Amino acid sequence: MDRFNAMRVFTRIVELGGFAKAADSLQLPRASVTILIKQLEAHLGVQLLQRTTRQVSPTLDGAAYYQRCVQLLADLEETEAVFSTRRQNPRGTLSVDMPSGIGRFLVIPALPTFTARYPHIDLEIGLNDRPVDLIREGVDCVLRGGLALDESLVARPLAMMDQITLASPGYLARKGVPASLDDLAGHHMVEYVSSASGKRFGLEFQFGAELRAVNLPKVVAVNSADGYFCACEAGYGLIQAPYYHAMQRLAQGSLLEVLGQLAVPKMALTALYPPHRQLSQRVRVFVDWLVELCAQPGTGLQRQRLR
Questions:
Q1: 198 and 108 co-located in one domain
Q2: How far, in Å, CA of 216 to CA of 188, rounded?
């Protein structure tokens, strides 16, 4: 029995919650996965997995063994990378998840520079506004906007994104163009509902150290960034969003900036990954590339203002 291979199979079963999913993920025959786990349990003399008709979960011994396996496999990968050309030429599949807007407008257009630099890395990119369980879904790294971070994950700050206040031309023609906070009386907003926390977001403005929340009446609430913009374009009220995400619509004229003289709080952009993957060379080079990308001018993350 190849113990390291058996450990790799075991950890993937725990993370994905099933033998079949693990076999498909590792591109192994399902029978081979079953045999490896039986051999591993016989070698250790303990039951590692509890099998039911619906799911597979680790026993108490299996949960403890999983934690040790994760660390050992991460250490092995890092050790091999140090003493091989893989450190300069990392290879393998990297699974990344990010909000659709960040993927469409920021990451994917710039991705050819990353794939040219690391041609042996195969990327699997998910575009989601929903929360992702990195361990169970086998995701290596996620990008997230906002400060609601999972403390069990390693966080790498990427940027503080400028935000602006927006409305559609049709809406402003009906309601008038507000010139101050007092002018917002009689206006509406589109409410954003976080699919991760359920928290509801209205409008916020920054006055020095003071953060002032403005909750206007609403007709529509949405839980996705694309839906948020679409509701605004349809004339349902004001929204606040990262400038990079609004650039195209501003250029096309489907949305207009309002209250531009009032500062909107910046939004953090962060890369998150599980602690046992922080030594992965694939994750490391991708996150380093993201840091480079976010520091470049013209991305729209930081608005370039004329002086």
A1: no
A2: 5
155 and 272 belong to one structural domain: yes
What are 262-297's pLDDT values in tens digits?
999 999 999 998 876 656 788 989 999 999 999 998
Nearest to 69 by CA among 122, 149, 8: 8
How far is residue 126's CA from residue 123's CA, in Å, rounded to a whole number? 10
Among residues 44, 65, 82, the one where a domain terminates is 82
Of all residues in the chain, the percent with pLDDT exceeding 70 is: 92
- Residue 94 class from Cβ within 10 Å (0-12 exposed, 13-18 middle, 19+ buried)? buried
Whether residue 254 sits in one domain with residue 182: yes
Tokens of 36: 């490896």
Answering whether pTM is above 0.85, one says no
List of residues 6+ apart from 107 with CB closer than 8 A: 98, 125, 143, 290, 293
Residue 306 falls within a domain, yes or no? no
Residue 94 lies in a domain: yes
Tokens standing for 181?
Answer: 């906070």
Question: Helix, strand or coil for residue 219?
Answer: strand
How far, in Å, CA of 243 to CA of 254, rounded? 14
| Domain around 57 | 3-82
Residue 301 lies inside a defined structural domain of this protein? no
Q: Which residues contact 84 (CB under 8 A, 6 or more apart)?
A: none
Q: What is the pLDDT of residues 123-141, one digit of tens each?
A: 999 998 777 777 677 788 9
Q: 43-75 b/e with 16+ CB inside 10 Å = b? A: eeeeebbeeeeeebebeeebeebbeebbeebbe
Assess whether 146 and 190 both reside in one domain: no
